[in-house]
Amino acid sequence: MAATASMPGTLPGSSRPSRLLVSTAALATCVSALTGCATAADRPTVPAPAVVIPTGDRATTTPAPGPATPVTYPATAAAYSQAFLAAIVDGDRARVGAFAKDAAMTTAVMSYHDRDGQWKLAGCQATGGAQSTVCVYYNLDIDVLQVYVDSARLGGPHAVASFSGTDGNQVPSDAGGYVGQFVDLWRLGSDVAMRVYATTSTVKAAMSRYATVFPIDASTPYDVGGPAPCPGNSVAVCVPVTTRDPIRGGSRTTYLTVDLPKILSHKPNGIVGIDR
Questions:
Q1: Most buried among 14, 145, 166, 259, by the most CB within 10 A?
Q2: What is the structure's pLDDT at 219?
Q3: Is residue 178 a contact partner of residue 209, using CB atoms and an 8 Å limit?
Q4: Model pTM score
Q5: What is the chain's Cα-based Rg?
Q6: Nearest-angstrom CA–CA distance, 211 and 131
Q7: Other C-beta atoms within 10 Å of 137: how many?
């Protein structure tokens, strides 16, 4: 279904029945052939389908505004956000509206219907205590979508409290800039968001070395070099990241192995290894 606002989207409305006009000639034919003709007003109305909304141990039904696909409300943030994304990809505005907090959010998020629809879940993590969870998704164009789910509303409608997105065009297509954005997230300890830029195994290895690479936490200054053959492996391509300890002095260089063709073609997971 096409979006109706500034962004593409997914979820419907209702229409009024039109009046049926019968000509006198047709009516006469009808009377002679049958005992009588029913008009549109005489025909029974068919009730609109209903959406089942779980409430605790019970389930209540509310009339749907028109034909709609039955909506299931998952009980986990990952599954709920995936169902939300699937509705966006399908262009089903009514289903998106069932998951989203309000109509304004539904309209806004529909812009992502026109993006590459192969969304991959980088991961979910708690935010704001146990009250909400953010799930991070990215696609092959490195568009990033962060979906915030209200934990108290899981299993029912309107649990997506907010979302934020980053256009893939903001990700550099040069190795130094690409690695630099990864390092910015690394310094913040944002391991979920780091998975947009690197393979899962690389992120795990990077986080295990956090204290060594960033001795004074996120404020540790660093420099990123250009791509060059990796030390001891002239076939692979590495980008050096040098961090400095302004308190105790000294510096450390870590080599990140990169898939250069993937980075240059502006694709996710372009950092494939870490040395030292």
A1: 145
A2: 86
A3: no
A4: 0.70
A5: 27
A6: 29
A7: 23
